[in-house]
Amino acid sequence: MTEYFLAGINDKHLNINLLIYDVWDKYSDFFNNDSKITAFFGSFGNCCWNGGRENKVKSFKKLEECFKIIKQINSLGISVRFTFSNPLITEYELNDYVGNSLMKMANNGMNGVIVASEILHKYLKEKYPNFHYVASTTKCSLNLEDYDNDYDISVLDYRLNKNIDFLNSIKDKSKIEILVDDCCPSCKFRKQHFENVGKYNLGEDIDISCLNPENYGKYENPKNFYESLLRTMKNSLTYEEVEEYKKMGFNKFKLTGRSQGRRFLLDSYIYYFVKPEFRHNVKSILQLRLGDELNLYDEK
Asked: Which of 51, 109, 154, 183 could be a cystine partner for 135, CB 3.0 to 4.6 Å?
């Protein structure tokens, strides 16, 4: 079974994820065989454990509302994954009220946590053993031995996506999750950027803008997803490459999107999830459901 992990447990991203799940459920013949959506990942804001993206207080909901969202997602058989991937967590932050409250709400054996801090990982695993734990790509590890660990799953650093020798060397490929559509380049500032975001989420007044003066990695042509994939998303995998990686033994694939717009999400979902011969069918269904025009990428 091939598993997909989608960005968004909040607001517009959640709505898009619920939409693609519903269309997949109703028109399963259009979608890839032996595949499923396993989890939605993200955050509710206002938690110092959050990482990868800035902690937006304005996006935080009341805890009662968060609980309803968790229950809604779980009712579909889909896991919620909290992105508690701030790499700078110390003992001091372990008692964070929001983080612990969310863990208690989701403590039903279905859900997971993405972490980068070993201090937080140890704390959560001991206090909340019913969760599955995922080593974040924000660890920025390029070493093979780092992927042989005690996490349930490790998200591969996307700079290794095309390193076939490295991929073949991984012992247990079922414990590796591959981020297939990241928009950033192979940036030497990547780890520093995630640390800056971590400082920001801990309350420090710090600039969290991109540190790479040559940043070409962006979804710059929403009318042609495939062209953008080849031209600017250099570490991303094509649909055909994903199919080859499945044959190698990898069965877990993560899609980015927390900082992307609706068009990117829908184009990438159609591209990776839908059988090529049915992509226009699914596009038409989505247009009817959304009531507006979605410019699907051109076929290659």
From this structure: 154
- Which contiguous run of DSSP H or E holds residue 82? strand 79-84
How many angstroms separate the CA atoms of 171 and 36, rounded? 24
The pLDDT tens digits of the residues spanning 275-292 come to 999 999 999 999 888 876
C-alpha angle 117/121/124, rounded to 5°? 135
Q: Is the pLDDT of residue 216 over 60?
A: no
How much is the pTM?
0.90
Question: Which residue segment(s) compose the domain that 167 sits in?
Answer: 2-290
Distance CA 95, CA 228 (A): 43
Number of domains comprising the chain = 1
Instruction: Note whether residue 299 is domain-resident.
Output: no
Averaged pLDDT, 5-13: 87
Per-residue pLDDT tens for 241-275?
999 999 999 999 999 876 677 777 888 899 999 99
Q: 131: exposed, middle or buried (C-beta count within 10 Å: 0-12, 13-18, 19+)? A: buried
Query: Does the structure show a pLDDT above 60 at 149?
Result: yes
What is the predicted pLDDT for the residue at 199? 83
Output the CA–CA distances (angstroms, integers) from residue 79 to 74, 187, 233, in the order listed: 6, 31, 28
Q: What is the CATH number of the domain that holds 43?
A: 3.20.20
Question: In whole angstroms, what separates CA 256 from the centre of its chain?
Answer: 5
Strands 252-255 and 35-42, bridge-based pairing: unpaired
Burial letters 19-52, b for 16+ CB under 10 A, else e: bbbebbeeeeebbbeebebbbbbbbbbbbbbbbb
Among 146, 106, 148, which residue's Cα sits nearest to residue 127? 106
